[in-house]
Write a structure and sequence with these properties.
136 residues; mainly alpha
Length: 136
């Protein structure tokens, strides 16, 4: 039994609370020119599909890759969350561009604590954040 696509990058607790896996994913802010990149993705997708029909089979793998990168970039821009390690056959340069607009993460919010708790580091982080709060 597989999970729904929209929950693939999230993890749940036993009582059903969903949280973003902060060890594998990061969220980012919108940025100027984002709509231009979305438009370019759609144009590249349309052109690659159109050219696959016209050009010889020799060019098909390249055009399929262009379509894949266009779709993946478009989805990432809509969801505004991305994997740290990147995606299969996806350019690292695009991932690094999204990292420039990464949101700052509060270590004590629910998603972060749930992620590190799942990894076994929750008590250490909680002790650190409590001692920092009392020192200030």
């Amino acid at each position: 039994m597989s999970r729904e696509y929209k929950y693939q990058n999230e993890t749940g607790t036993k009582i059903g609370k969903w949280y973003l896996n902060r060890l594998d994913y990061f969220e980012f802010y919108g940025f100027p020119g984002e709509w231009k990149i979305k438009a370019k993705c759609l144009v590249c997708l349309g052109l690659s599909i159109w050219l696959i029909k016209l050009l010889p089979v020799f060019f098909a793998p390249i055009l399929v890759w262009v379509a894949y990168v266009s779709i993946r970039t478009f989805v990432i821009l809509i969801e505004k969350k991305c994997r740290y390690r990147g995606y299969f056959l996806f350019p690292e340069k695009i991932i690094n561009f999204f990292r420039e607009y990464r949101k700052d993460v509060d270590v004590t919010d629910f998603d972060s604590l749930a992620t590190v708790e799942k990894a076994g580091q929750g008590s250490k982080i909680a002790k650190q954040s409590l001692t920092q709060k009392f020192k200030n």
